[in-house]
Amino acid sequence: MTQALLIVAHGSRREASNQEVRQLTERVRVRAGPLYSEVACAFLELAEPSILEGIHNCIANGADHLLVLPYFLSAGRHVSQDIPKILARAREIYPGVVIDLAPYLGAADAIPELLLTVAEQQGC
């Protein structure tokens, strides 16, 4: 099984914000090493590629298992409804591909420790 990681962010009209997500994705790719065949990002709206395009690109590059990780801090409508709906559509389009949805970033057990680390780095 060839597994890809697709980081999904909201997207912004401010291109610099979208570029930050792309740069973070590259840092994750380097850090992941051989864990994933590909680490890519996609956007819910306002930026490219869309989530469906991101899934398509990963599959076109050989992935047959995708882990979609929502880069969101809380479980608002986008996390609880919009992204699962898009993934359901993707599963219809690509029935031979496993598409899993990871918990959104804000639900990660590591977030409290990360926040404390950032605060400590600022001398607080």
From TrEMBL:
Enzyme class: lyase
SUPFAM superfamilies: Chelatase (SSF53800)
Signal peptide range in chain numbering: none
Single Gene Ontology MF annotation: sirohydrochlorin cobaltochelatase activity
InterPro entries from the UniProt entry: CbiX-like, Sirohydro_Cobaltochel/CbiX
EC number: 4.99.1.3
UniProt keyword terms in alphabetical order: Lyase, Metal-binding
Metal-binding is among the record's keywords: yes
Name of this chain's protein: Sirohydrochlorin cobaltochelatase
